[in-house]
Specification:
single chain, mainly alpha, Arc Repressor Mutant, subunit A, Tetracycline Repressor, domain 2, 10 helices
Length: 209
């Protein structure tokens, strides 16, 4: 009986988290109350408080359920790749980032909430600071790869590695947001691979393989 109760408790917790994700998508973070989530989950507000202290705590656990590229994952993919073709590393990293967002529903929905449905004020302001810190880390990792590209003659001679890194981060963040917005799949989604290839090729020195 105790085991069944524990399993049922965990199922309720997971149902609340799933309902929260869907409600945040529908109403936004500010417009969502615990009553909205309780209704969507088919539980009482007391049941939510049994598992989560408040809406921010609920958001934090929902957020921890996924590993978000560009936020949680930074240098592992890049540094694990072959050093023989640095620009190819960049391209594969960008393709892998898009794949991570688009292939997992929970990851995509969490990205959408954080990109469009969340106001980073009050208790959520710390989350924005974390995004800024991660952005700096990604730029540093990308800059290292671009410096390898410069050393091997792959990078355009007029393009500084740090600037190239910032441009690539801005490109990737914009591409993800546009992919999420392209609900009809008639602007960005069919062209993601070509856009990534064009971005990387625009960094390549003339005549470089």
């Amino acid at each position: 009986m105790a085991r069944r109760t524990k399993e049922e408790t965990e199922q309720t917790r997971l149902r609340i988290l799933s309902a929260a994700r869907q409600t945040f998508l529908l109403r936004g973070m500010t417009g969502t109350t615990l009553e909205h989530i309780a209704l969507a989950a088919g539980v009482t507000r007391g049941a939510i408080y049994w598992h989560f202290a408040n809406k921010k705590a609920l958001f934090d656990v929902m957020r921890s359920q996924v590993c978000l590229p560009l936020i949680d994952r930074t240098d592992v993919t890049l540094l694990a790749m072959s050093r023989d073709d640095p620009l190819r590393c960049i391209e594969e990293f960008l393709r892998g980032t898009i794949e991570a967002v688009t292939s997992c529903t929970e990851t995509r929905q969490t990205f959408e909430i954080m990109a469009f449905k969340c106001e980073y004020v009050d208790e959520f302001e710390k989350e924005l600071g974390e995004h800024q810190r991660k952005s700096g880390e990604i730029v540093n990792v990308l800059a290292r790869v671009y410096r390898r590209a410069k050393a091997t003659g792959q990078l355009r001679p007029d393009l500084a590695p740090k600037l190239a890194a910032v441009e690539t981060l801005a490109f990737m963040m914009g591409l993800i947001r546009l992919w999420l917005l392209d609900q009809q799949a008639d602007i960005v989604r069919p062209r993601v691979g070509a856009l990534i290839a064009a971005h990387v090729n625009g960094r390549r020195a003339q005549g470089a393989a």
